[in-house]
Backbone:
């Protein structure tokens, strides 16, 4: 029996779904499988054939309009004109690597570092979040002299050899590194602890002790501060502080993977980690910083980075190229000029309230939680037992697709709808999303 990945396979098209497809869609899926191989996955039992995007909306080949409630690649909105213009103008002039002098990478770095705590004063660039996290692990090991990395039980940090070995969400087919240790997610809905911060810090210490018992020196704790793959776990604010204190007390560093919670996503703060009042040693980011142009970054405290950078040259051919930097600068400028952090806070709070109001109509909604435009909508068999209802969650996202709303699931049980629209999502879109959810649950008899 084939192994399943919790992040890739939970909401995915499978060969047995092919019978229900129209002829054109079935031909495309078969051609894709033949040419691209079996590692790739498509969303939905009936895959969506998208051809155009604008803002928070997408259109399929038949002309149907969809509300995108999942995409943080086009973080400020699909096909944002500011990004299109910046990339076009720079492409007309020059695109090359970072071994020549160029102002764009310096100007952007100054602007980006200005959004971080003062102690973060160095920037490096890659193309993907996987590359950024891969480098961060190398930095952690150089600084600490150790190899042990701690992540949460459902974490996803990338697809390189180092990062896949620290990404349990990839499933049992992808073995974890012998130096990786897992901590249970800081799930305020399911963890019965009087103080979640104390509980989580003690779980970190347990794994550091286990490393020591096995002759592994601790290097660092790598975490997405909204624990998105673990089911979107944003609260209470500040619960990460004691865990980071434990990490430092044991000689390790804290790597904040901001690919998902960064760039104004949570509304409260520009960076997800800032909601917890912590200063990471290293920050990694990717998808949202380029709005569809492949670019990622690693930001760090200079003395932490020096352990690696003073000894090992680093070069990434496309990392930090002028076109990528033009896209990234456009994104940063749009976030500020359009007030997207405050927009995320205000619109996200209204969306959260209206989603929570659905709980009075549907007993299968166990919990609704979030920060800004990043919300977890948890479905259960009954509220008393909190038994996860994965089957219902998968049926709901298929129903939502029928109502032209696109999203997916997260969490170790696959029962949490991950609602993370582009920041272009408006107050006027709330009725579409909430109405579609209400209809979907009603149609499913729940």
Residues:
């Amino acid at each position: 029996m084939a192994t399943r990945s919790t992040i890739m396979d939970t909401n995915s098209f499978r060969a047995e779904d092919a019978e229900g497809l129209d002829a054109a869609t079935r031909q495309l899926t078969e051609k894709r499988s033949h040419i691209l191989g079996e590692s790739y996955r498509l969303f939905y039992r009936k895959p969506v054939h998208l051809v155009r995007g604008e803002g928070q909306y997408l259109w399929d080949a038949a002309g149907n309009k969809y509300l995108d409630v999942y995409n943080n690649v086009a973080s400020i909105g699909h096909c944002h004109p500011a990004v299109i213009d910046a990339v076009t103008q720079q492409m007309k002039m020059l695109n090359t690597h970072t071994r020549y002098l160029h102002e764009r990478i310096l100007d952007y770095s100054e602007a980006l570092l200005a959004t971080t705590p003062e102690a973060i004063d160095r920037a490096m660039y890659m193309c993907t979040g996987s590359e950024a996290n891969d480098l961060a692990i190398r930095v952690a090991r150089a600084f600490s002299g150790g190899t042990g990395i701690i992540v949460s039980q459902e974490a996803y940090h990338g697809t390189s050899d180092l990062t896949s070995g620290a990404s349990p969400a990839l499933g049992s087919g992808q073995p974890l590194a012998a130096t990786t240790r897992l901590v249970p997610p800081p799930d305020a809905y399911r963890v019965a602890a009087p103080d979640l911060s104390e509980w989580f810090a003690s779980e970190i210490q347990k794994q550091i002790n286990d490393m020591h018992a096995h002759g592994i020196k601790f290097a660092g704790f790598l975490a997405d501060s909204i624990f998105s793959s673990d089911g979107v776990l944003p609260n209470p604010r500040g619960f990460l502080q004691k865990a980071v204190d434990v990490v430092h007390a044991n000689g390790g560093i804290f790597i904040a993977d901001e690919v998902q919670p960064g760039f104004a996503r949570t509304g409260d703060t520009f960076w997800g980690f800032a909601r917890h009042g912590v200063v990471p040693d290293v920050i990694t980011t990717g998808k949202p910083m380029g709005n569809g142009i492949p670019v990622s970054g690693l930001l760090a405290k200079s003395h932490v980075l020096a352990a690696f950078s003073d000894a090992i040259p680093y070069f990434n051919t496309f990392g930090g190229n002028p076109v990528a930097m033009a896209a990234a600068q456009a994104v940063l400028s749009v976030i500020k000029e359009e007030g997207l952090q405050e927009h995320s806070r205000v619109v996200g709070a209204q969306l959260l309230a209206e989603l929570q109001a659905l709980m009075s109509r549907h007993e299968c909604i166990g919990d609704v939680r979030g920060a800004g435009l990043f919300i977890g909508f948890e479905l259960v068999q009954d509220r008393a037992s909190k038994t996860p209802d994965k089957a219902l969650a998968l049926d709901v996202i298929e129903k939502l697709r029928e109502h032209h709303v696109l999203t997916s699931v997260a969490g170790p049980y696959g029962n949490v709808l991950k609602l993370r629209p582009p920041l272009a999502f408006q107050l006027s879109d709330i009725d579409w999303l909430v109405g579609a959810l209400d209809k979907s649950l009603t149609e499913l008899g729940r």
